[in-house]
Amino acid sequence: MSMTVGVFRPGTTVLHRLPVGAKLLGLAVLSVAIVVVRGPVSSVAFLAAAVVLALVGRLDLALVARSLRTVLVLALVVALLQWWLFSLDRAVESLLDLVSLALLALTLTVTTAVTDTLDAVVRWLGPLRRLGVDPERVALTIGLAVQALPGTLALAQETRDAARARGLERSPRAYLTPFVIRVVARAHETGDALKARGIGD
Amino acid sequence: MPSRSSWGRRRTVAELRFEGAEVRVETSDGGERTILSPTTLTLTERRIGVIGGNGSGKSTLARLLNGLVEPTAGRVLVDGVDVARHGAAVRRKVGFTFTDPAAQLVMPTCVEDVELSLRRTVKDRVRRRALAHETLARFGLAERADVSVHALSGGQRQLLALAGVLATEPDVLVCDEPTTLLDLRNTRMVGDLLLSLPQQLVLVSHDLDLVRRCDRVLVVEDGRVRFDGAAEDAVDDYVASVAGRTGPA
Question: ipTM of the assembly?
Answer without folding.
Answer: 0.76
